[in-house]
């Protein structure tokens, strides 16, 4: 049996993680509750073993199928923006990928629904949730541009791949008062906040971003 060390040693130790958290603070992440979850979540189990020594660098890492695990700054920043709007109970994540962002969310909100279009990535993400004992996550293999209408509406939606335009279907699945954090754009992307109000939506561009594209269909 393969033994996985959740606490980490050397380059994956708590000390290394503390340095990462300090760097995120310097880059402007200020929500200490989010930072604490970043500190305690073993990012090294979300990448191939050959890359685990780089897991606590503030850098995006490949996870196969031309996809990447977002850089810790991005995960922390998006999470802090998502939670800034209150305490969402039910959250949809579009683009489970490695499951790292999913695991971070699952420690901060009661219930996470996550969708992914690439089956094998989702299977790995699932087993990592199990390993961490996070049992408040539901997975679906689907084209997430459509969201997960059967389970909606959601208090918050986090999208981790970039569409050219904000998908209407996702706005429809937000509760009134709900917030979506989503990278938007083709060549030039912006991390964008979409707040649903009783009058419609309020959209705010936050900062430039670089994400893999939101693609249609499943594989
Ligand atoms: N949150 C992930 C980031 C993965 S990268 C992590 O922490 O690892 C973005 C992910 O979005 C990829 O896994 C990609 O397959 C997925 N994706 C892209 N378009 C999608 C779509 N239409 N529906 C669902 N997932 C999609």
TrEMBL record:
Coiled coil (UniProt feature): none
Reported function: Catalyzes the methyl esterification of L-isoaspartyl residues in peptides and proteins that result from spontaneous decomposition of normal L-aspartyl and L-asparaginyl residues. It plays a role in the repair and/or degradation of damaged proteins.
Active site: 70
Classification of source organism: Bacteria, Pseudomonadati, Pseudomonadota, Gammaproteobacteria, Oceanospirillales
UniProt catalytic activity: [protein]-L-isoaspartate + S-adenosyl-L-methionine = [protein]-L-isoaspartate alpha-methyl ester + S-adenosyl-L-homocysteine
InterPro entries, sorted: PCMT, SAM-dependent_MTases_sf
Location relative to the cell: Cytoplasm
Name of the protein in question: Protein-L-isoaspartate O-methyltransferase
Gene that this sequence comes from: pcm
Keywords from the UniProt entry: Cytoplasm, Methyltransferase, S-adenosyl-L-methionine, Transferase
Main location: cytoplasm
One protein family per Pfam: PCMT
Organism: Litoribacillus peritrichatus
Record's keyword annotation contains NADP: no
């Amino acid at each position: 049996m393969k033994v996985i060390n959740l606490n980490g040693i050397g380059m994956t130790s708590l000390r290394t993680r503390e340095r990462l958290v300090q760097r995120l603070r310097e880059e402007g992440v200020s929500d200490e509750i989010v930072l604490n979850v970043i500190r305690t979540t073993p990012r090294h189990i979300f990448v191939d073993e050959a890359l685990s020594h780089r897991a606590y660098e503030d850098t995006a890492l490949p996870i196969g199928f031309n996809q990447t695990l977002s850089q810790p700054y991005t995960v922390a920043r998006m999470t802090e923006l998502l939670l800034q709007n209150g305490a969402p109970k039910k959250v949809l994540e579009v683009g489970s990928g490695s499951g790292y962002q999913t695991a971070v969310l699952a420690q901060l909100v009661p219930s996470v629904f996550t969708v992914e279009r690439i089956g094998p990535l989702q299977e790995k993400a699932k087993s990592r949730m199990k390993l961490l004992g996070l049992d408040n996550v539901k997975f679906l293999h689907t084209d997430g541009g459509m969201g997960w209408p059967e389970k909606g509406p959601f208090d918050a939606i986090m999208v981790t791949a970039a569409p050219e335009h904000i998908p209407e279907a996702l706005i429809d699945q937000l509760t009134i008062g709900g917030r979506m954090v989503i990278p938007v754009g083709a060549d030039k992307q912006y991390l964008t906040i979409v707040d649903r109000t009783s009058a419609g939506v309020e959209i705010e561009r936050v900062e430039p971003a670089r994400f893999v594209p939101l693609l249609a269909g499943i594989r």
